[in-house]
Structures are given as structure tokens and as C-alpha cells.
Amino acid sequence: MTEVNRPPRRGGWTRFVTARPRLTLLVALVLTALAVVAGSDVADRLGSGGWEDPAAQSTYATKALEREFPDSQPNFLLLVDASEASVDDPAVAAEAKKLTERLAAEKGVTGVGSYWRTGAPTLRSEDGSEALIAARLTGDDTAVNKTLDRIAPELRGTHGPVEVKVGGILAVRQEMQTIIQEDLLRAEMIALPVTLVLLVMVFGSAVAALLPLGVGVVAILGTNAILRGLTEVTDVSVFALNLTTAMGLGLAIDYALFIVRRFREELSTGADSLTAVATTLRTAGRTVLFSALTVAVSLAAMMVFPQYFLKSFAYAGIAVVLLAAAAALILLPAALVLLGDRVNALDLRKLFKRRKAKTTGDGTPAVEEGAAWGRMATLVMRRAPFFAVATTAGLLLLGLPFLGVKFGTADDRQLPAGAESHVVQQHLREGFPGTPGGGLEVLAEGEATKAEYAAYKERLADLPEVLRVEGPLVKGDWAYFTVQPKGEAVDEGAQRLVKEIRAADAPFDTSVTGTAAVLVDTKAAIGGGLPWALAFIAIVTLILVFLLTGSVLIPLQAVLLNALSLTAMFGALVWVFQDGHLSGLLAFTSPGSIETTLPVLMFCVAFGLSMDYGVFLLSRIKEEYDHTGDHTASVRFGLQRTGGLITAAAVILAVVMIAIGTSRVTNTKMLGLGIALAVLMDAMVIRSLLVPAVMRLTGRATWWAPAPLRRFHERFGLSEGEPAPAAKATAEATGTTDAETATPDVPAPGKQRDDDKVEISG
After folding, report:
1. Does the pTM exceed 0.70?
2. Which of 632, 71, 43 is nearest to 377 (CA)?
3. Which residue, 67, 255, 306, 425, shows the most beta carbons closer than 10 Å to its own?
4. How far apart are CA 526 and CA 53, in angstroms?
């Protein structure tokens, strides 16, 4: 059959990105270089907190206590170990007093106290071999980090008869920040070469394989510069860097895979490079744009929550998604125009083949490599009820452990077991009386008499979850009490105690803070924002998918199936990280709970990535349906053409996320490994099995929309490819090309597309 070249259609966007490709790439190179300079110190400007609600009662009380009673909020600890001796030994006590005085004399340090100054039993271990020196470092994050860098090396180590370790919240955060930066660099060193090898295997051509990496580098460096700018006006979490790297590489590879594959497909039909780019942008380019919007919407939902930890991921995620899409839609077409047929150069697979495979003129395989995916689609659709029920049941079963989730706060157990600040906190948990770091502070505001303070103290002591009440410490119209719970710092009893204290009558205004109070307020903030975030994601996703497909049912299917794909991730989150299974293999310490904001973060990221793959598949199905009007054959064609592409993209993204998951910080490990599992489940189970099964069950009704919405889509909707109204109208009028009459194995007679004869690698 003679191939007729289609005339080039170069709209305004195509003319814009291809008119001066060399100039476009040169400008991009200059901007990228500027981004390197602008974002070079971004890691040093990021914070390691952000889990608290800034408007919560606990946050208000913490800031008031820091201001009015700085001694009550130590953020720096020295664990003094007397080894075989006792902390009351004269030589040990003398050395400890010297350390206390030395610390008190340091600039930027206040509220220094110690066991040897106060004799407080909570500052001495139960076996008498260890005791604490506590202080508060003052100033903003930059100031306290500089003070910590200055004094910590001089204080830690051996001093006469004692060994000193540095701990406290500041040490935990600084050590976490350092480890994340080191782990991120290591992850990049792992992911980049492995990703390049996989891309070469997918594309064959080394030239084509380098293009996605180039898009990813531009997206990552640009996002770093944006985050650096944001640090001037708001707080940004250091954890956001992990998402920047993972999504920058992952989405850039997804988008570039889709565009380069379509470009090579167009070249294989005999089109010149400009025509191929024009067709690619009109088809795959639209899909990439829709995909980027759906991912950005999922990430933008985190802006609903007050915690800057979650907002930071929205900042980083939206920036990297839009930059990856922009690079794929501007820089990549410019590069493809210049490369032309040379995009297939340097086929490294030939080095590993004993005989040369039969290829087309441009060097791509001349066999229908997607035939296996087509056969799978046919099998699934023939047994659609079985695959739909079995797959859904299996996914729900994998998600069952999440029903037992327990939410907690991030603490030192995020760090590896050997980290100094983690060791200090572990010693406090295991060897010191009470619940060190787990007490509740009750701030009292307003004038009160000693009798009123005493009566309130007795009221607190009578609460069932209270071990003891200390205080009050009074300063003018301010006072505070310390309440020790009977159980663990953040268990259910401690959380109930927070609510009981807040409900207790008092002759003055009270506010409660402490670890359990922060957890209670965080859960309330997440619970209040979650319905709005879910509604935002669902509504905007429904609209975007409708604009892409023109169907009412497909958007509903997309949202529900995407949510179902996340069940395995959430089940594994609890079974592995909360319950501690595989903790030895994965090298982490399980705190027995999941940090409250993490499931929200993982849902938004994983849902967005699932929609990314969903849009790729649906757009190709829609293109074929517009061309033939045959529902079943279109589903088969869509999976045949995108199954290998989606799987390859998912595997590559999973490699990047697993590299992130090698981090020694538990939250980062959870994020990386959890998202990798979700991505693989979505690509290999949802897109390969559940989507074709469900679409076969819904049949031609899949594409139904009421007349007003159909007219709206005809006017404003966008889809990949050019509809064939005549073919579709004929199909609808005669009813001869529906799912019931068309043979599932092959397209309906006369409908087979010429380009089915050539399948591009990947």
C-alpha cells in the first residue's frame, strides 16, 4: 500500500517552537545556567519542620512559652555519660558543672539548666549513669543553625571522666537536613545511570535516550531556582527536594517518551521532521498538556492544608510538572526539528544482538511489537467480569492493613539508628523517668491568685490520664504548668488528656501544647482540609478528563480506578512502616505510627502520577475511537500502542523513586518506596487489566454524554488526533461497529489503520 504523506499543519504553537530551534535551545541553555546559579544554595535555605498548623492552639502556646518562659522550651540537649561511675560522683559533677557554665557563656544561648544545677529527677537516668544539660538556642533558623555549628563540635566527645553527646530538637532537624542532602545526591548518582540504560533499552537510540534526561535536568534545576526564590517569602521544607528530583526525572521521561515515540512514529510514515513535529504536538503534545494539568491539580490540593510541609510539596511539584511539560513542549520539539532522522542514531542494541533485526527505513523495528499488549487486551475483554472482580478484590485486600493505621508525629526515629541525636533521644525514652519530651505544657493567661492556681492544679491532677502536675511557674500575668501523662507521649491516652485539659474549667485563659497536643491539632487540621482537597482533585480531574474525552462515564471511571490503584500503597505503608515488617531489611526504626501528613502527601502525588498514565491511555483510545467508531477495537488499539510505553515509563519512574527510597530518613524512604509501588500497580494492574475490563463492560455507553455537554465538548474540548465525523456518524447511525458486532481480536473490516503495521520501540 502506498503511503501518502499528509501535508504539514503548523499552527501558531508549532511555528513558535520550530521557527528558530537553535535560538530556542540557546535561550534555554542560558536560562538553565542562570537557574544553576540561583538555586545553588537552596538546600541550605530549607527547613526540616513544617508539620504543625500555624493557627493551632498548640502553636500559639509554644510561641508564647518561647517568648515568656524560654527556659521551659529547651531545644538543645547534652547527654552526659559517666560510664561506670555515677553522675553524683564528685569528679563527674565538677566536670558537668564546667560544661554547664561553658554553655551558659556562649552567645545565642539562654535558659541553661542541668541536673547538677537543679537536682530535678527527670534530668537524671534511672540507673544514675547519665544526666542532662538543657538550653535554648535563640534566633531564627539561620541563627540557631550557626550557633549549633559553632558550639556542638566543642561540646561533644570526651571531657575528663564523662562522654558527651549532642541532642535535642535542633540537633535532630540539622542531622535530618544533612542526611537528606547526602542521600539525595546518592539517589541521583544511582538513578541517572540506571535510567539512561533503561531509556537506551526502550528507545534503542542513544540520541533519543538522552533527550528525556535533558528535559529532566532543565525541570529539576529550574524548580530548585524557584524554591530558592520562595524561601525569601515563605518557609519551604527540605523534603521537597526529594519530590523535585523524583518527579523532575519521572515526568520528564514520561512526557519525552510520549513525544519522541510519536515523532518517530510519524517519521516512519515518511513525514519530514517539521511535519512530524507538527503532528506530534497536535496529538501527543495535547496529551502531555492535559497530563501535566491533571498532575498539577492533584499536587495543588495540598495548598488547602495549613502545614508548610505539605505546601512545600505543592510548590515543588507544581513547578517541576509545569517546567517538565514546558521543556517537553518547547525545547524537545526544537531539538527534534534539528535532529530529524538522526533521533534514531547510535542504536546501541545492535551491540547485544547476534543478528540484525528487520527494520524500517528509519531504523525502528518493522514488527508489531505491541502485539502482545493487543492480545492481552483481547483476553481481558473476553473475560471482563472475571478480571474486573478479581482485580478489584485483590486491590481491596492489599489495602486492608490501612484500616489499622495509627497517626503520630515525626521525631528522631526518622533518623538512622546510629545518628547521634537519635541515640540521645532513645536514651531518654528508655533510661529516664517519666516521658521525656512527652509532657504537656499548659499556658495560663490573665490575673490569678495563688489559690486559683492551686485549685486549677488539683483539678488537672485529678484527671484520669495524669501522672503528675508540676508548677506553676508565674511571670506577671503569665503562668504555665507541666503535666506528665501516664502513658506514652502520643498514645491515645495522651491525646484524650489534651482534650480533657482543654475542656477543664479555669479562672483564666488556657492553651495546651506539647507533642500530643501538636498531634491532636495536626489531625484536626488534616481532617478539616481533607474533604476540600479531595473535592478539588475530583471536580477538576472530572472536568479535564471530560474535555479530553467528551464522555461522562470515563472521567468517573478514571477517578475511581485511580483511587483504587493506591490501596496497595496504603496497605504497605501500615504493614511495613507502622507495624515494622521488613524493618531489618529496609534499615529503619518503626515508631509504631505513621506521620499524619504523609498519607495526604502520598495520595496527592500518586493520584497525579496515576492520572498521568491514565491520560496517555485514554487519549490514544479516544483517537482511535474518533477514527473508527469501534469501541472494542479502540480499547485494544489504545493498550497495544501505549501498554509498553506506560510500563516502560512506570518502571523508569519506579527506579527513580526506589533510589529516593534508599534514604536513611524514614519519611523519605516511605515516600520513595510507597510511590514506586503505587506507580507499578497502576501501570501493570489498573491500566493493563482493570481499565480494559471495565471499558468492555460499559461498552458503547462509555462514550455517552448528554446533548448539551456533547455540544460543549465539540466547542471547547481537545483530544489527541483528528476526529473522523463521517465514520463516527455512520457507526452511530447503523450500530454496526459497536462492541457487540466488532471482533475483539482485530479492528472491524476496513477499519484497520495503516500505521498498525509499524510499532515503534517502547
Report:
1. yes
2. 632
3. 255
4. 9
C-alpha cell belonging to residue 451:
489559690
- Reference 112, options 80, 142, 130, 135; nearest CA is 135
CA-nearest of 301, 218, 231 to 47 is: 231
**Which set of grid coordinates corresponds to residue 185?**
545526591
pLDDT at 665 over 80: yes
DSSP assignment string, 4-23: PPPPP---HHHHHHHSSHHH
CB 656 within 8 A of CB 195: yes
Distances (CA, A) of 114 to 67, 104, 256, 323, 440: 21, 11, 60, 52, 20
Tell me the β-bridge partners of 264. none
Q: In the numeric block, which cell numbers belong to residue 484?
A: 506528665
How is residue 689 annotated by DSSP?
A: I
Asked if residues 675 and 606 have their Cβ atoms less than 8 Å apart, the reply is yes
Q: Supply the Cα-derived Rg of the chain in whole angstroms.
A: 30
Please say if the pLDDT value at position 78 is more than 90: yes
**Residue written as cell 571522666?**
161
CA distance 173 to 412: 8
* DSSP secondary structure, 312-378, as one string: HHHHHHHHHHHHHHHIIIIIHHHHHHHHGGGGG--BGGGGG-SSPPPB-TTSSB-S-TTHHHHHHHH
Q: Is the peptide bond between 599 and the residue preceding it cis, with omega within 30 degrees of 0?
A: no
Could you tell me the three cell numbers for 228? 530558592
- Grid cell listed for 634: 479502540
76 forms beta bridges with: 135
Query: pLDDT confidence of 60, banded at 50, 70, 90?
Result: very high
CB 622 within 8 A of CB 719: yes
Closest C-alpha to 122, from 468, 512, 494? 468
| Lowest pLDDT segment from 140-154, 195-209, 424-438 | 424-438
The helix/strand/coil state of 77 is: strand
Assigned C-alpha cell, 314: 505543592
Which residues, other chains included, contact 473 with Cβ-Cβ below 8 Å and sequence gap of 6+? 69, 72, 479, 480
- CA 222 – CA 377 distance, rounded (Å): 40
Beta-carbon contacts of residue 232 (< 8 Å; ≥ 6 apart): none
Kindly give, in sequence order, each residue whose CB lies less than 8 Å from that of residue 169, ignoring residues fewer than 6 positions away.
75
CA dist., res. 576 & res. 401, Å (int): 10
Kindly state the cell numbers that stand for 43.
538546600
In the numeric block, the cell 563540635 is attached to 153
Statement: residue 511 has pLDDT above 90: yes
Which cell is 395 given?
486491590
pLDDT at residue 644 above 70?
Answer: yes
**Measured between alpha carbons, how far is residue 624 from residues 481, 699, 721 in Å?**
70, 15, 8
Find out whether 578 and 405 touch, Cβ atoms under 8 Å. Answer: yes
Asked if 497 and 463 touch (Cβ cutoff 8 Å), the reply is yes
**In the predicted structure, residue 349 carries a pLDDT above the cut 80:** no
Q: Which SS3 state, helix, strand or coil, does residue 78 take?
A: strand
pLDDT category at 733 given cuts 50, 70, 90 is very low
Query: Cell 533510589 belongs to which residue?
Result: 659
Pairing between β-strand 594-595 and β-strand 407-408 as defined by DSSP bridges: parallel
Q: How far apart are CA 548 and CA 459, in angstroms?
A: 62
C-alpha 315/C-alpha 300 separation (Å) is 8
Please tell me the distance from the alpha carbon of residue 634 to that of residue 700, in angstroms, as a whole number: 11
